[in-house]
Design brief:
Layout lengths: L1 E5 H9 L15 H6 L8 H16 L3 H14 L7 H16 L9 H10 L7 H13 L12 H24 L10 H11 L5 E5 L5 E9 L23 H15 L3
Parallel strand pairs: 1-3
Antiparallel strand pairs: 2-3
Helix pairs in contact: 4-5, 4-10, 5-6, 5-8, 5-10, 6-7, 6-8, 8-9, 8-10
Bound molecules: protoporphyrin IX containing FE (HEM).
């Protein structure tokens, strides 16, 4: 596997559709592996494009202000957790999204999502991930019929994608020394984390010649003359994160609620 660290190279590769993502096993039979084979993240070409369009439609229906309001209320409700920012960051974003996406019992879901999220990047046999997936699909609102018309899988994908990245952004912002300084606005804290220590550190691609690449999203900015460092925290190109607005709205609400000042 080759590591690509120069941000300009990473950006160029992410924007080039000739570089593909490692695909999930389409013949998988276990529930959590089957899930990986039905999401956008591990599909290429027309399959990816079709799932991506459905994901964007789901996200378009979400009210970003309502997500932020929900995040503020849930963060307040977890005040008893004291300074345990990790627990709040792991719970609130997923619960808010689950509520807006129409899941039943949204506050029961973050711990299931955490189990499935651990399995998600590479897959493999996992009874715990299988059980979590089954429960998450049961909690999803039912829509359409047949595998490709059923958006339940993609709704669960949204929760899984949001889980670790949004939590890492929140915790990263709160750990900055400047978080204790009331004059530093929360969006500046978030921007600093995204630029310097992106929550998703790496992603993988396969080059047209078959070589496996590990792309560093927070790598070096070789071209200093270009002024501002490139920000690749949400990826780039056709597979870039479709939800930066949602992520930032939720993260800002949680960080605001947890800042000591
Ligand atoms: C700080 C929070 C987040 C960060 C830093 C982040 C980052 C990323 C990155 C880098 C990718 C692209 C991976 C690649 O190119 O291989 C990605 C993809 C994705 N993200 Fe996010 N994400 C965040 C939050 C969210 C949230 C809240 C959601 C859902 C509401 C979400 C949904 C997705 C989806 C569905 C994809 C796959 C897109 C596709 O297959 O075309 N992300 N994210």
């Amino acid at each position: 596997m080759m590591d690509v660290t120069e941000r300009a190279d990473v950006e160029r590769i992410l924007a080039d559709p000739a570089y593909s993502v490692p695909e999930a096993d389409a013949a998988a039979t276990r529930p959590a592996d089957r899930f990986r084979a039905r999401v956008s993240r591990f599909a290429n070409g027309a399959l990816h494009d079709a799932r991506r369009r459905r994901i964007e439609a789901l996200l378009d229906h979400l009210d970003v202000d309502a997500l932020a309001t929900g995040a503020t209320a849930r963060t307040r409700a977890m005040a008893h957790v004291g300074d345990n920012a990790d627990a709040v960051a792991a719970h609130v974003p997923v619960a808010c999204l689950a509520e807006q996406l129409g899941f039943a019992e949204p506050d029961a879901l973050p711990r299931l999502v955490a189990v499935l999220a651990e399995h998600y990047p590479v897959g493999g046999p996992s009874d715990a991930a299988d059980a979590a997936l089954v429960r998450l699909l049961a909690a999803a609102p039912q829509s359409g019929r047949g595998e490709e018309r059923d958006d339940s899988v993609l709704r669960v994908q949204l929760l899984v994608q949001a889980h670790a990245a949004t939590a890492a952004l929140i915790v990263g912002a709160l750990r900055l020394p400047s978080a204790a300084d009331a004059v530093v606005p929360t969006p500046d804290l978030l921007a600093s984390v995204l630029r310097e220590t992106p929550p998703v550190r790496t992603t993988r691609r396969i080059a047209p010649d078959g070589e496996q690449l590990v792309l560093q999203l927070g790598g070096r900015d070789g071209d200093a003359s270009s002024g501002r460092p490139r920000m690749l925290a949400f990826g780039a190109g056709q597979r870039a994160c479709p939800a930066p607005r949602h992520a930032l709205a939720i993260a800002a609400a949680v960080v605001d609620g947890l800042r000591p000042c």
